[in-house]
Design a protein that fits this description.
Dimethylsulfoxide Reductase, domain 2; alpha/beta; N-terminal domain of TfIIb; binds iron/sulfur cluster; 4 domains; about 20% strand; 30 strands; Rossmann fold; about 700 residues; single chain; 22 helices
């Protein structure tokens, strides 16, 4: 431990719930272990297995402890000066020979706000490249786009989780918190205990769906039609809140017309959800005075994800369930700093404070904070998949920070091939991930418990993660890496390694922007349970923050929420004779994202040792497959093999694979990179496949 305090209060390194935890000394070896922290209101001491075992990845042996430089085909240990010299020299050479946009930067939704901010500034000020994006594009960008279009502002939840038990009904669309963030389940249990109801929409009967009063299992990729069918019934049954629609919204006639074209019987044919089930969902949603819709990756990770989320927002608006107490639409963000990571400039089209890179006033404001000419700032670059797809062609070198696209990107074999074709690849990571293993230089960086920084949880609550122990010798922080690289590339000032100094600059850069952090200081964060943005102010004199948004007006120019004129359309890839089934992908409780950290934790590996293919008994019988048989799942992009897991909790026309593993069971070998036209989110959640028993393959 860094001081004599017996416990350091901090937050989990994994998902967007950002559970509070204490780090306490473990044994006599100078290490730490996780202990309960009951005073943090979001999780009140509860942790899932990932959080409980998070300290295991801090241990020597689980992680990298020295820079590695490729020599003679192998990664060999090197000193920091040598490694940073190589990275700076190779990035500069590519920039000089091919132009600034030949240098790419790929960030991550797990990076702290300070790192996300510094990485965006590094790309635009030091490298001068427009080619920066991050893996959060794969996470919730469709919800962000739909929320911005409807409300004028994207904050995952516009209310604290504590409001969930106080509402009358929650519709959870494509979300499985029982596996992704188990401590959040108590909010839904309390909702039910208070007399509210829970509707879960998911092609699988997940552990979350088992808690529901009503579970609807639509065919993957059809929840847009499902939302339109519900809105049709709302209109037909006279349940529209006409006064609210008139006073607080715009665009209703077009949205209404589209909904009226989606007859319940037509929707039943598209989705497989029966008309009585649809009516029951409408009844549960409309009967109480208040209700919420919460979406997650299911509706969002589609080539029509923005429209799908827009359709669910339409349902909220037509029934007067947004911008009112205990009612609203929200997105359950996934990655640890998925919210803050999308606010401070590592997105291809964005400047800090959730400002638009194309907005001249935003460019002037941020350029002044950065001490550069606004005209010198590059314009928007490629989105995450488009950037990965351009590697080795237009983009010839890449700096990766906190991401493992070899496992987590769609069409992963192609992405891996693109990474291999680069002139130069540098990766900053805590472990030798599958992406780091391909790099020319690997820079070992500090982890959550070894560094101070802020994250913003799924509620928009800015939190302070405190440094609890010293990092191993040989490891530096990401901020230190950017400081060292900037200096080598001729920018001596503006990239401090001290996180509080970076945060102070971030406050100024975000001031006046949609995500305004200017009134938030480390001192304020250290004293409370976090501060909800927007929070304008200066010094330690910031306002109280904004736990609940939109109660008086929406953040659009006229203060009205905007309906989205959306209609059902098929997925980018529908089943056919060659690929007759649908694949959907997702998560299991014991692994996190690409598994780079959690696959190194013995307890988690024992609980979830590898991928599997979940399928219905009727499909298994048709294939002649028994439990545990190796199944080959084949799509137009490749083939993956994993053992069969047979359950009635999935539609017979659909198979499911978790995506946490590399190798022959890698689910993302199969997934479709078809992009949503607005959010540029790939269609992870649905693609056409065929399935065969592969008894010759060892899964
Ligand atoms: Fe960590 Fe999320 Fe688990 Fe909480 S629910 S302990 S934040 S992984």
């Amino acid at each position: 431990m860094t001081d004599s305090v017996s416990a350091t209060p901090t937050h989990c390194p994994y998902c967007a719930l950002q559970c509070g935890m204490n780090l306490v000394a473990a044994g006599g070896g100078g290490g730490v272990e996780v202990a309960e922290r009951a005073d943090f209101p979001v999780n009140r001491g509860a942790l899932c297995g990932k959080g409980r075992t998070a300290a295991d990845v801090l241990a020597p042996g689980a992680r990298l402890a020295t820079p590695l430089v490729r020599s003679g085909g192998a990664l060999v240990p090197a000193g920091w000066d040598e490694a940073l010299d190589v990275v700076a020299g190779r990035l500069a050479r590519v920039r000089d020979e091919h132009g600034a946009d030949a240098v790419g930067v790929f960030g991550g939704g797990g990076l702290t706000n300070e790192k996300a901010y510094a990485l965006g500034k590094f790309a635009r000020v030091v490298l001068g490249t427009s080619q920066i994006d991050y893996n959060g594009r794969f996470c919730m960008s469709s919800a962000a786009a739909a929320g911005t279009a409807a409300f004028g502002l994207d904050r995952g939840l516009p209310f604290p989780l504590a409001d969930v038990p106080l509402t009358g009904c929650v519709i959870l669309v494509g979300s499985n918190p029982a596996e992704t963030m188990p401590p959040a389940l108590r909010y839904f249990a309390e909702l039910k205990a208070n007399g509210g109801s829970l509707v879960v929409i998911d092609p699988r009967r997940t552990r979350t769906a088992e808690l529901a009063d009503l579970h609807l299992a639509p065919r993957p990729g059809t929840d847009l039609a499902l939302a339109l069918g519900m809105l049709h019934l709302v209109v037909a049954e006279g349940l529209v809140d006409e006064e609210y629609v008139e006073r607080r919204t715009s665009g209703w006639p077009a949205a209404r017309a589209s909904a009226m074209a989606h007859w319940p019987e037509y929707v039943e044919r598209i989705t497989g959800v029966s008309v009585p089930e649809l009516r029951e969902a409408v009844r549960l949603f409309c009967a109480p005075e208040s209700a919420m819709v919460l979406t997650a990756r299911g509706p969002e990770q589609q080539a029509k994800g923005t429209d799908t989320v827009g359709a669910w927002i339409n349902l909220c608006l037509a029934t007067g369930r947004a911008g009112r107490p205990r009612s609203g639409y929200g997105c359950l963000t996934g990655q640890g700093n998925g919210q803050g990571g999308r606010e401070h400039g590592q997105k291809a089209d964005q400047l800090p404070g959730y400002r638009k890179l194309t907005d001249p006033a935003a460019r002037r404001h941020v350029a002044e904070v950065w001490g550069v000419d606004p005209d010198a700032l590059p314009g928007p670059g490629r989105s995450a998949y488009e950037l990965l797809d351009a590697l080795g062609r237009d983009v010839r070198s890449l700096l990766v920070m906190g991401s493992n696209p070899v496992v987590s990107a769609p069409r992963a074999a192609h992405v891996e091939e693109r990474l291999r074709s680069l002139d130069f690849l540098a990766v900053c990571d805590v472990v030798l991930s599958e992406t780091a293993a391909l790099a020319d230089v690997v820079l070992p960086v500090t982890q959550w418990a070894e560094e101070t920084g802020t994250t913003t949880n799924l509620e928009g609550r800015v939190l302070l993660r405190r440094r609890a122990l010293d990092p191993p010798a040989g490891v530096r922080s990401d901020l230190d890496v950017l400081h060292g690289l900037a200096a080598r590339l001729g920018v001596e000032k503006g990239f401090p390694a001290d996180p509080e100094e970076v945060f102070e600059e971030l406050r100024r850069a975000s001031a006046g922007g949609p995500a305004d952090y200017s009134g938030i200081s480390y001192r304020r964060l250290a004293e409370g349970d976090g501060v909800f943005w927007p929070c304008p102010g200066t010094g330690d004199e910031g306002g109280p923050g904004t736990p609940r948004l939109f109660l008086d007006r929406f953040a659009t120019e006229d203060g009205r929420a905007r309906f989205a004129p959306v209609a059902h359309r098929p997925s980018a890839e529908e089943p056919d004779a060659e690929y007759p089934l649908l694949l959907t992908t997702g998560r299991v409780v014991a692994q996190y994202q690409s598994g780079a950290q959690t696959r190194r934790v013995a307890e988690l590996n024992a609980a979830a040792p590898g991928p599997f293919v979940q399928l219905h008994p009727r499909l298994a019988a048709r294939l002649g497959a028994a439990e545990g048989d190796p199944l080959a799942v084949v799509s137009r992009r490749g083939r993956a093999v994993a053992p069969a897991r047979i359950t009635t909790g999935i539609r017979p026309d659909t198979v499911f694979m978790p995506f946490h593993w590399p190798g022959e069971g890698r689910a993302n070998t199969l997934t479709n990179p078809a992009l949503d036209p607005t959010s540029r989110m790939p269609e992870f959640k649905v693609c056409a496949v065929r399935v065969e028993v592969a008894r010759g393959d060892a899964p």
